Amino acid sequence: MASKAAAAAKPSNLIPGATGDWELVIGLEVHAQVASKSKLFSASSTEFGAEPNSHVSLVDAAMPGMLPVINKECVAQAIRTGLGLKSEIHLKSVFDRKNYFYPDLPQGYQISQYKQPIVGEGEVEIDADGETMRVRIERLHLEQDAGKSLHDQHPDYSYVDLNRSGVALMEIVSKPDMRSSKQAQAYVTKLRTILRYLGTCDGDMEKGNLRADVNVSVRKPGGPLGTRCEIKNVNSIRFIGQAIEVEARRQIDIIEDGGKIDQETRLFDAAKGETRSMRSKEEAHDYRYFPDPDLLPLELTQSFVDDLKQHLPELPDEKRARFVKDFGLSVYDANVLVAERERADYFESVLGLIADGKRDGKLAANWVINELLGRLNKEGHDIADSKVTAKQIGGIVDLIASNAISGKIAKDLFEIVWSEGGDPAKIVEDRGMKQVTDTGAIEKAVDEIIAANPDKVEQAKAKPSMIGWFVGQVMKSTGGKANPAAVNDILKAKLGL
Ligand code: ADP
Ligand code: MG
Questions:
Q1: 394 and 454 part of one domain
Q2: Domain containing 349: what range?
């Protein structure tokens, strides 16, 4: 629930202009390459980075008379994705030809779905601009990717590589529900997370297997939708944010100068930090869509869909709710952990490798997030290639929970485990890192410090916060191994505080 103060405040995502504030409206068309071994309508491999034109069948090269045959696994992947996006699955869908000429499109048309896509309306929950919101999905359809033109191989010629020709893509279209670049970035990030959990797309934007067409318009808050421009093929989360910001500014400046926005397709130039016109907006009728006569309508049985539904993995939102409920994590920490399936799995194996009783979920989360992820991040590694195992982190957590070591010593221990490996309990034993909880030993250290610093003792009587200085001295004299709570108690008693 938003507080009254928050409700009264102006939405923070308005963009100021000379004639008052403007609101951004964003809708995204995300192209996600289906994770599958072979292409949508042929048995050629989808392997990335292969020798050019080494994965091209007669179908992919569009030889006359060749017939496309649908790949069942690609269909299953689209359905899994639809289910993960809480969307309705259409038991009947139709493949259409979208006609256009392009050197890397030998058919002269792309097989896509137009009026009857395989997946209909759904939604994605995102956290952005300090709130949780839903972005509605309009549709998801299956289509073929085109080949690739290579312009840098020869000064006078361009080459065509058809390896990508015919690879399955899912186009996921959102409603124009986003109101800031942050929301659009959060949406793409969340979408990628969901696809990766589902295993339906690798989501690797650097390899181009996830790219977004970004539709941007501006309007006065609450007014009718403005004319949109579509920025094609933006291929990183950061660029999506930048492209939206500069495009909105461009549109606002035009309108405030008395001009109007032409609906068009634009390109984002990251180096110059600007968008520029590519072509005026094509209309659907320009493509002369019609059902592909080589392909029957795609008809699914409910049981095929139900079976896929039953085998869906736990998705990030559900996992987050479970982490909060079962392990007492904060929503923030749970979000960090579920953002990648590998992280969540790692965390769960830290908790799962319990020798006796239950590990403290919060403490374990804290160690995975702040120590391990923090360190991996600094060194540019993924959790998947962490040398420090879940078992080792679990060992450190157990030593802290049983008061065998202090939090400070635990950090030293982590350093040792990180650089040398080994069993945390054994390291603590061998190197004498155990926390001193023996009050006799602590008392002795306290007595020595009190005896050596009569002036400080006088000061502390007048100013109790001086106790911190004494704690520091005791910790120093015990090599950081004294139990801080015990030190505090003993000091208070001896100083009469
Ligand atoms: P097309 O296929 O011609 O690009 P669609 O109807 O599929 O058109 O819509 C494309 C995208 O544009 C959708 O993601 C939609 O949310 C978005 N969109 C539609 N109207 C606007 C608008 N006024 N401002 C921003 N985005 C919009
Ligand atoms: Mg479009």
A1: no
A2: 314-430
